[in-house]
Amino acid sequence: MIRKLQFYRLNLKNTIKIFYFLFCRFFKRNITDEQNQLYNFYFHLIRYNGYLKKEDKDYFTSFYPTLDITIRVRKRTSSDLRIFELIFYYQEYKEVVATFKKYFSNDNALNIIDAGSNIGLASVYFSKHFQNSSLIAIEPDTANFNNLVFNLDNNGLQNSFKIKGGLWSSNTNLKIIADFRDKQDWSFRVEETVEESDVKAYSVQYLMKQYNFDTIDIFKIDIEGSEKEIFTNPKSDTSFLSITKCIVIEIHDEFDCREDIYKVLTNYNFEFHQHGELTVGINKNLKELF
């Protein structure tokens, strides 16, 4: 019943559609995927205190006053709402914020890299905890990247650098492969290709030089297996770890690289622990004493 009392979260057109959805469900009529998606979005707004502010043929844009954020998600089936839930409800990166604040001074103006940024929600989350930070957000998929640009631009991330591309051991060309896990938008992976491509790969060193990062305060890496290329390719330069204070990596065990990554982190004197699917580490050489 609570869902039926909160139509003020929608515009008139979608309120009518929800009424029709409920009518169809009550009388056991066929329900389309589009109707189900709208109803799921409506429930999402109720659960997270959101209000639909704008709609076009491809996107819903909503404001969430409790979180003080404006977020655009796709109408079609995607991982957008699930990612929102993970980051803002389950607070997947809360442990990263707490770990950083425990060991390092917090002047809010940090250097943050969000590799595998998807639609930019982790970047928005970090910006709420570390205002005035400089942030590099890198994402290879065009549809994800377009949403990333909107979400960062509409949430006050003025010092953000938005890169359409992938993180790799060197600057090269990549191709997107949609064969990983559930094959949804949050599971796209990349492979290197000798062919010219509109998906470019960039090394960490290149990005730091390009955007004047002399240190990395928080480095978030969720790149669907490409972490193996970054940390274990013999040609990869991992010296960026010596100037990285806090790192968070989702290691994808399908690529059999966890122990190798642990060895690299240990060699750079990182202390790390597992938090859910995330490996969270701090550089003991840079740890500050309070």
Task: Write structural notes for this entry.
With 290 residues, this protein is of the alpha/beta class. It is 32% helix and 26% strand. It is built from nine helices and 13 strands. The protein has helices at residues 12-26, 33-47, 80-89, 94-103, 121-129, 142-153, 204-210, 227-232, 258-267; strands at 51-55, 59-64, 69-74, 111-115, 134-139, 160-167, 172-177, 189-193, 199-202, 216-221, 244-250, 270-275, 278-283. The strands form two sheets. The chain has a ten-stranded mixed β-sheet with strand order 8-7-9-6-5-4-10-11-13-12, with helices on both faces. The chain has a three-stranded antiparallel β-sheet with strand order 1-2-3. A hairpin with a 4-residue loop joins strand 2 (59-64) and strand 3. The termini are far apart. The model has no long low-confidence stretch (mean pLDDT 92).
